[in-house]
Design goal:
The complex is a heterotrimer of chains A (187), B (198) and C (102). Chain A has 187 residues and is of the alpha+beta class. Chain A has six helices and five strands, in the order ααααββαββαβ. In chain A, strand 1 and strand 2 form a beta hairpin. The relative contact order of chain A is 0.09. The chains are: A alpha+beta (187), B mainly alpha (198), C alpha+beta (102).
Chain lengths: 187, 198, 102
């Protein structure tokens, strides 16, 4: 070990910092630069090792997955309770906010070029017949004419809510949250 | 069949299967179990492999990933940076893996050694072949399997999970200084072995 | 009696147009305890709490595409009450919650 040799820990910290600021006492001392390269390769290999093992993992058997999704369903984010008017005293009827949000997502997704990111219901949901306000945030397909698509989403959401719930929808706001490309996520 | 020239249906909206991690995370946070399922399936292999590396047990890994999956669903609404959801999911996997190992404490070390010893060891150690990446991977696999458990876990948490020294210390139930020490020893052994493969 | 009652009710509810799936309500056990002297039975779909004077049925329903959630909820409740009446169940009551709209 020469006087100019630095510890592996220091080399690791230097790598962690993205090799910024440039450190000549590492980069320009062959012994250190060599060790740095080894460390960097080790890191890349370690990530790759686990990623490779991941692709070889037999994808969970259906019962494992079913077990997870069943627990997820039991912990559904059902949100607020929306009471429904019932004609007799023996029946208690209600709709969950989560069911309505699911319907809004589906309505928005049905419009070409739109994917719903999130939605919100504003208003006194517990009072049957009280007007509510709906806000839908969508991701728009790159290149699509956004105003027309937003109108279509608004229309689709209002139509489905009218047909499948008894909510009195005062307004539907559509917000374009981001833009995506086919097969490539957010742009 | 439709003939050509007929006005066909507009292009379909991208299915959730093509959606970015960030979008799926936001949908799932909003209560969409289907988006959660797509996200989980996408990363399940990696999550499982990571848990196997941490626990040295397929069975424990499967349990840890199951617990992690439910925790991910539960905690998604609190995730402030949905675009980094993958790393966040991996941190939940490691948390659940160590919770599980702690709960099974008494026989831990024995199990660990036993499982390590049973892991398939690839022994065609011809130095000329080991220069290839695949062989370097095999070499790394062997070297990792030979590391003492704490060193191996520290290394995996740091280099695969990107966890901080503080987080590693917490998982392992040791001080941050001790965690640095474990990592330093793992780094020392692995770089020395790696030099031998060149 | 609760065994077959719960199973029969599940079949009755499943046959209602627009019902895509039935689930037992999470937390039903708690409600069952509030009905004194109950014998409870939860099939994978329907939860029934029964005492000498009360018959409580709770269920969560997923509604299929193109059906109105409230309309299906009312039809389900009516079908359940009809079935309970035909069986002569004491103090009938039903709670239907729509948890998904297709």
């Amino acid at each position: 070990m020469s006087d100019e040799t630095v510890t592996l820990e220091r080399l690791a910290d230097y790598l962690d910092s993205g090799r910024i600021p440039y450190d000549p006492s590492i980069e320009e001392v062959p012994e250190n630069a060599g060790q740095l390269a080894v460390l960097q390769r080790l890191r890349a290999l370690s990530s790759r090792l686990v990623a490779d093992e991941g692709t070889q993992e037999s994808l969970a058997d259906p019962s494992w997955f079913g077990g997870v999704m069943e627990r997820v369903r039991r912990e559904a984010r059902s949100g607020r309770d929306i009471p429904l008017v019932s004609s007799d005293l023996q029946s208690t009827l209600h709709l969950t906010e989560g069911a309505v949000r699911g319907l809004i997502r589906e309505a928005g997704d049905s419009v070409p070029g739109a994917v719903v990111i999130s939605c919100g219901l504003d208003g006194p949901l517990a009072e049957p017949g009280a007007p509510i306000h709906v806000e839908v945030t969508i991701s728009a397909l790159r290149g699509i004419f956004v105003p027309a698509m937003a109108d279509e989403v608004r229309e689709a959401v209002a139509t489905r809510l009218l047909a499948q719930t008894e909510l009195v929808v005062d307004s539907v706001d559509v917000i374009v949250g981001d833009v995506h490309q086919l097969g490539g996520g957010a742009a | 069949m439709l003939s050509e020239g007929v006005n066909l249906a507009p292009p379909p909206a991208p299915s959730l299967a093509e959606a970015s991690d960030g979008l799926l995370a936001r949908r799932a946070a909003d209560g969409d179990a289907r988006a959660f399922e797509v996200l989980l399936r996408r990363h399940l292999g990696l999550m499982t492999a990571y848990a196997v590396r941490l626990t040295s047990s397929k069975h424990d890994a499967s349990d840890a990933v199951q617990e992690a999956s439910v925790a991910i669903w539960r905690e998604l609404p609190n995730l402030t940076t949905p675009d980094t959801v993958r790393g966040w999911m991996m941190r939940i996997v490691s948390r659940k893996a160590f919770d599980l190992m702690r709960a099974r404490k008494p026989s831990d070390d024995i199990d660990d050694e036993a499982v390590s010893a049973r892991l398939p060891v690839d022994d065609h150690g011809d130095p000329a072949r080991i220069a290839q990446t695949d062989d370097a991977m095999a070499g790394l696999r062997r070297a990792l399997d030979r590391l003492p458990p704490l060193q191996r876990q520290s290394w995996i948490l740091r280099e695969v999970g990107g966890e901080s020294y503080g987080e590693i210390a917490e998982h392992l139930g040791i001080t941050t200084t001790a965690a640095r020490g474990q990592l330093a020893r793992a780094r020392e052994t692995l770089t020395t072995e790696m030099e031998a493969w060149r | 009696m609760t065994d077959t009652l719960a199973d029969d009710l599940a079949a009755v509810v499943r046959s209602v147009p627009g019902v895509a799936a039935i689930y037992p309500r999470p937390g039903f056990a708690q409600l069952a305890r509030s009905v004194i002297g109950t014998v409870t039975k939860t099939t994978p779909q329907v939860a029934v709490a029964l005492s000498a004077t009360q018959t409580r049925v709770e269920l969560d329903v997923a509604v299929g595409p193109e059906h109105s959630g409230p309309a299906v909820a009312r039809t389900v409740a009516a079908a359940v009450l009809d079935h309970l009446a035909a069986r002569g169940a004491p103090g009938p009551g039903v709670d239907v919650r729509i948890v998904a709209l297709g």
